[in-house]
């Protein structure tokens, strides 16, 4: 038994530890406003838009009673939902439901695209090269 286990260990390889690859972001446009670095978050169950940006875009926000708890245990009540907002990304229009939150706005990355969006566009995240491929839009872009 020992010899068998030792034999299997000879076939094992040791992988070099890598650092955090950073964020995945994609450029998109909403109502003529460019978002050069919309964050794509595989850990987010919803897509999020800051209230300031929703107001700036003149969006109709439906009331919502949901609340969110972030990784740092910070809680926020939903400021409502914007349904079926058309996000122009690559050569496609994708309808996305956004939860509007009263959060600090970062103009460079002022929206968060969650798992439903990533599934819709066929996102494939290559952690080794830090590349995001949206296979259903253009498999050669991003």
Automatic annotation (TrEMBL):
Q: Where are the transmembrane segments?
A: none
Coiled coil where?
none
A single Pfam family, by name?
Answer: gag-asp_proteas
Tell me the InterPro entries matching this sequence: Peptidase_aspartic_dom_sf
| Top-rank taxon, per record | Eukaryota
Its protein name is: Aspartic peptidase DDI1-type domain-containing protein
Species for this entry: Brassica cretica
């Amino acid at each position: 038994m020992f010899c068998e286990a030792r034999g299997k260990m000879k076939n094992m390889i040791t992988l070099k530890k890598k650092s955090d690859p950073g964020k995945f972001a994609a450029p998109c446009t909403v109502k003529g406003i460019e978002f050069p670095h919309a964050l794509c978050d595989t850990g987010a169950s919803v897509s999020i838009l800051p209230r300031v940006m929703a107001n700036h875009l003149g969006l109709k926000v439906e009331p919502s009673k949901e609340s969110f708890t972030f990784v740092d245990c910070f809680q926020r009540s939903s400021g409502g939902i914007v349904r079926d907002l058309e996000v122009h990304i690559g050569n496609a229009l994708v309808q996305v439901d956004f939860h509007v939150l009263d959060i600090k706005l970062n103009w460079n990355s002022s929206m968060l695209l969650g798992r439903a969006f990533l599934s819709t566009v066929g996102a494939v995240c290559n952690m080794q090269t830090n590349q995001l491929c949206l296979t259903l839009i253009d498999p050669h872009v991003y």
